[in-house]
Design goal:
This protein is α/β, with parallel strands linked by helices. The protein has three domains: 3-88 and 246-274, Nucleotidyltransferase, domain 5 (2-Layer Sandwich), CATH 3.30.420.40; 95-239, Nucleotidyltransferase, domain 5, CATH 3.30.420; 278-329, N-terminal domain of TfIIb. The protein contains ten helices and 13 strands. The chain has helices at residues 37-52, 67-74, 82-93, 132-142, 149-154, 167-179, 184-202, 223-233, 246-262, 326-329, and strands at 3-9, 13-19, 25-32, 57-63, 78-79, 99-103, 108-114, 117-123, 213-216, 237-238, 278-284, 293-299, 302-307. The strands form three sheets. Strands 3-2-1-4-5 form a five-stranded mixed sheet. Strands 8-7-6-9-10 form a five-stranded mixed sheet. It is globular, with a radius of gyration of 22 Å. 42% of the residues are buried.
Amino acid sequence: MSKYIGIDVGSVTTKLVAIDEQCQVLFNTYLRTEGSPIQTIQKALHELYSALGKIKIDGVATTGSGRRLAGIMVGADVEKNEITAHATAAKWICPDARTVIDIGGQDSKIIYLKSGVSSGFNMNSVCAAGTGSFLDHQATRLGIPIEEFGDYALRSTSPVRIAGRCGVFAESDLIHKQQMGFKKEDLIAGLCIALVRNYLSNVARGKKIQQTVLFQGGVAANAGLKAAFEKLLGMEVVVPEWFKVMGALGAAVIAKKHKEETGRETSFKGMEIASFECKPRTFVCSDCANLCEINELYIEGSIASRWGSKCGKWENLSLRSTNRSEELEMPLT
């Protein structure tokens, strides 16, 4: 049977999903990127290999902020933005979904769907209040495991009002209320409500939210935020089974569709990439006033790709810059 892989490389986490011809999930993993996307992708592939053995892969797609790096590294057939990937997964999981609430490690977005196709979206602009990294920080500060954060909120009987318009203000107000002696349960419940209000104001921006509503992304594991969304929206919010890896799932479905539409053989470099030495490099091209930052990826000591120039000249892998530092001209070790 044909199998397809989707890889979602975000700022905080990396997700990988493998599906079969019926788009059923055969394998999924959710890993902290920890500033090392290459090593994390390789670890995810190792886990896939350990779980399913040497399977035949017929298509690969990448998404997320690191989709270009991941795509070049593994030999992806398709690279898609997060909006398209999440919308594709939402359509597959719930064909009648109209709204997707997605909150990840460092960003939040809302996707509006019509007949399973994205009809619009918004993303958080500058405020990270309510994202996974913000909640991780607050859980650590309160001495609560992040896995129990939402359960604390559900035990609250009198949520404290917290200023949630900004992450800095929310934390400051939370500390102030904590010093006043309020219980952790009420503080966390109040914080969840404040963060949902912030989301509806700054991300949804007052636009009407229609059912069915899907809540996905790592933060969807927080039962307190789910309850707060349901309270403020006055409707059920559905957390799908694969909420943590919906971007990667959508990418895998996209890879399958690409194969069916084109009939091309996959460009996937094989499971051996999990053990290859991959190194990124960067330099600034000073051949014109644009001063483009050029990114390079070396696999096993040989350059595999180069990108970032506005004029496109650095796509020629045989080019060598006369402006690069002596360090960059040294052979890879």
